[in-house]
Amino acid sequence: MTTLDMDLEQLIYRSELSPTFRRGLNGDLPDLLEQARRLNAARRITGLLLVYQGCFIQLIEGRPDQLDVLISALERDPRHRNMNAIGRRKIKQRAFPDWTMSARDLSADDERIHKRLDEAGAALPPTMSYSGVLRFLKRIWAIRFDECQFVYV
Ligand SMILES: Cc1cc2nc3c(=O)[nH]c(=O)nc-3n(C[C@H](O)[C@H](O)[C@H](O)COP(=O)(O)O)c2cc1C
Question: How far is CA 150 from CA 31, 113, 132, in A?
Answer without folding.
Answer: 13, 11, 24
